Amino acid sequence: MGSCWVFATIIAIENDQDWWYLSCKKCPKKVNAVGTRFYCEKCDRFDITGNPRFKIQVRVIDGTGSASLLMWDRECIQLIGKNASDLKDEMVKNSADLGYPSDIEALVDRKILFKIQIKLQNIKEYNDVFTVMRLTVDDDLISKHVTIPCFESQDSTSENEVSTPNKTPTKQSTSNKIQESNTVKRGFDVNLSTQMSSNKTRRIVKEEKN
Ligand SMILES: [Zn+2]
């Protein structure tokens, strides 16, 4: 349907321990173990090894609402500065089988400008997990992008497709530090916070597990 830039803070990691998956060596698709080998459906080929890749889902907030964002390998490497097999090796070295690598826990509280994909199911099926297409932590870029309109291809129809109340009162959060941009706030509000109001807390943030 479109895409949207959102400036938001990561507040929790939503994966259990599945912060990585084994992909095909020729493509990013997940492989299935078949005996001692791995099979990629897309490439229709077997291999004796695969590539560990990141797949991390985070909960984020901005001044107006919250949502879950799914980050794939490229964006995770960009944020963490290491690849998934590096972190796996470190976990083994530290004999830390449970929980997340500290590099992943360190994502919490980071403020990031995300470009998220808005799919039809996000709107129609109240799915609040959005896929991250790009992200940036560069301060200069953030200051520029935060002032551009949220929707890249904004027109009257896209406004109507988003079936939200016509007038959403701006919520005044006392701890709202993200007031730089009304455009980004509005976009996040329109797309996400109305879905948040259904109070779906189907995932448990990690703090509650301990
Ligand atoms: Zn493949």
From TrEMBL:
Protein name per its UniProtKB record: Nucleic acid-binding
Molecular function in Gene Ontology: DNA binding; zinc ion binding
Keywords: DNA-binding, Metal-binding, Zinc, Zinc-finger
Region (Disordered): 153-192
Stretch forming the signal peptide: none
Family the UniProt entry places it in: Belongs to the replication factor A protein 1 family.
Source organism of the structure: Abeliophyllum distichum
Pfam families: Rep_fac-A_C (PF08646)
